[in-house]
Design brief:
Structural class: mainly alpha
Largest sheet: none
Radius of gyration: 20 Å
Strand content: under 5%
Number of strands: 0
Shape: elongated
Helix content: over 70%
């Protein structure tokens, strides 16, 4: 296995990781912004107020994008195995 192959695999792994984390992080970010606006408008300064809405938003985002996330990780794993196994076995 050449260093270029290892770099390509690492780059693809980082890209897939970003794609896997993006829906949940974006849901938490949007919810945090909305709760922050609500807190600023009502002058409620409770730090724990945003926890439950963020948790619910992340669960909803996971339910909405779960099948896509699963297919993404399965496709990446399949491509990784089919690329690495012949190189390790010597095929």
């Amino acid at each position: 296995m050449t260093p270029d192959t290892v770099i390509d695999i690492a780059r693809d792994a980082l890209f897939v990781t970003i794609l896997l984390a993006a829906p949940l992080l974006l849901a938490a970010l949007a919810t945090g912004l909305l709760v922050g606006l609500f807190q600023a408008a009502t002058q409620i300064n409770e730090q724990t107020l945003s926890f439950i809405p963020k948790l619910l938003a992340m669960v909803l985002a996971l339910l909405a994008s779960g099948s896509w996330l699963l297919s993404l990780i399965l496709d990446y794993t399949h491509a990784l195995i089919t690329e690495i196994v012949p190189r390790v076995v010597g095929g």
